[in-house]
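can u do me a favor
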């Protein structure tokens, strides 16, 4: 018999598993090239050549005892120092290795932060729509995730007024994901300032910190030169989590970091506790080889132009077919309004061999998410299928 908690998670996790299975079943039936699978945020662009070179060189030239052994649970000090220096160069901050913990991706980092902060019953807020795994991560530590309603009229920017209404004496933290999965929206500096002002006001009212957890795996994926605000500059009690899963196309390698700024309330205590959390969650430390690889590739970038080309082609194709989409400024997701129920829309899309994720899976019905981290040709080939789907809903071609 499994635990009641895991039973609930197993049941709710079955939607994602069903999607995987559906994709595989359709590929077997129609041929992979005839299935337009937009369901997963798995980068289709290979890691930059320098990453591969670094892996090969490090594996060949480094003493294996040094390369594969345990190290501090926070990660190699020299790697953390390099990460800190890179952030300082980019954002004018003053971090050092004592502000950085290397983690097992963003997911590992978020779990470390939440384990460090949460007592049972503590509430964590997030703006809808959001990456549904947050609910599982918060529940891992018996916290309660609460969604601040989506700001549809405001173009899915965070709504500071709605945040103020949602904060309670139990609110311990707010998770902010920028650029955003699933909308592709980049939260503006003004919106961030307004959020920070509400958090300041509320922590003053309650006389205790409310932490802002910045989840940033898509930071590097910003188009048209758009800036993604660096949150520690706007709010003192910010803990930032990053990963190279998307920025260097390394999701399977599980490598990222968290930043605990010295000006945070209880920064030293949070750092020490987070290092222990990294260990006792069973991660122990971030993968040793990958720590060294990313330290050599801090200035490397994925081929953002390829995602941009996909973004433009998909947006043009979908809007011409009559769909209404949020024009994404970041990440690699298109957020499309459905002309009816989103789950029914996703089911109908399958009839045209199109796989998308209903907005309900991001706590925001009435939309679907289309992950365009796929081959450009697939996007072009899929457009007639989207046009047929639009036609079924009586949408008029533009
Ligand atoms: N946060 C968001 C918003 C994501 O979309 C993802 C992955 O898709 C993660 C966290 C987890 O990323 P990682 O692979 O770095 O654990």
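np, heres the sequence
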């Amino acid at each position: 018999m499994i635990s009641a908690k895991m039973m609930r998670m197993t049941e709710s996790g079955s939607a994602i598993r069903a999607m995987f299975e559906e994709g595989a079943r359709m590929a077997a039936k129609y041929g992979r090239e005839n299935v337009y699978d937009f369901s997963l945020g798995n980068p289709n662009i290979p890691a930059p050549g320098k990453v591969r070179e670094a892996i090969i060189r490090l594996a060949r030239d480094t003493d294996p005892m040094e390369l594969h052994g345990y190290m501090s649970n926070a990660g190699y000090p020299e790697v953390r120092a390099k990460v800190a220096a890179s952030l300082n160069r980019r954002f004018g901050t003053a971090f050092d290795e004592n502000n950085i913990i290397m983690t097992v991706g963003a997911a590992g980092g978020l779990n470390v932060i939440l384990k460090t902060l949460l007592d049972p019953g503590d509430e964590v807020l997030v703006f809808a729509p959001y990456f549904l795994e947050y609910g599982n991560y918060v529940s891992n530590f018996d916290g309660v995730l609460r969604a601040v309603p989506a700001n549809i009229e405001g173009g899915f920017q965070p709504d500071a007024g709605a945040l103020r209404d949602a904060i309670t004496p139990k609110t311990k933290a707010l998770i902010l994901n920028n650029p955003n999965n699933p909308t592709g929206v980049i939260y503006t500096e003004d919106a961030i300032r307004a959020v920070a002002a509400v958090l300041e006001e509320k922590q003053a009212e309650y006389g205790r910190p409310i932490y802002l957890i910045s989840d940033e795996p898509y930071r590097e994926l910003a188009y048209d030169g758009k800036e993604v605000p660096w949150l520690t500059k706007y709010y003192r009690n910010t803990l930032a989590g990053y990963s190279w899963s998307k920025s260097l196309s390394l999701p399977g390698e599980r490598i990222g970091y968290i930043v605990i700024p010295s000006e945070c309330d209880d920064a030293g205590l949070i750092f020490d506790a987070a290092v222990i959390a990294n260990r006792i969650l069973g991660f122990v430390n971030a993968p040793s080889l990958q720590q060294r690889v990313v330290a050599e590739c801090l200035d490397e970038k994925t081929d953002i132009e390829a995602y941009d080309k996909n973004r433009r082609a998909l947006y043009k194709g979908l809007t011409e077919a009559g769909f209404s989409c949020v024009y994404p400024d970041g990440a690699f997701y298109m957020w499309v309004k459905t002309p009816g129920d989103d789950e029914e829309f996703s089911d109908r899309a399958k009839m045209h061999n199109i796989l998308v994720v209903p907005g309900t899976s991001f706590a925001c019905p009435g939309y679907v998410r289309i992950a365009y981290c796929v081959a450009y040709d697939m996007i072009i080939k899929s457009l007639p299928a989207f046009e047929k789907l639009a036609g079924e809903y009586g949408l008029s071609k533009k």
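The chain has two domains: 4-48+303-392, 69-295. hope that helps!!
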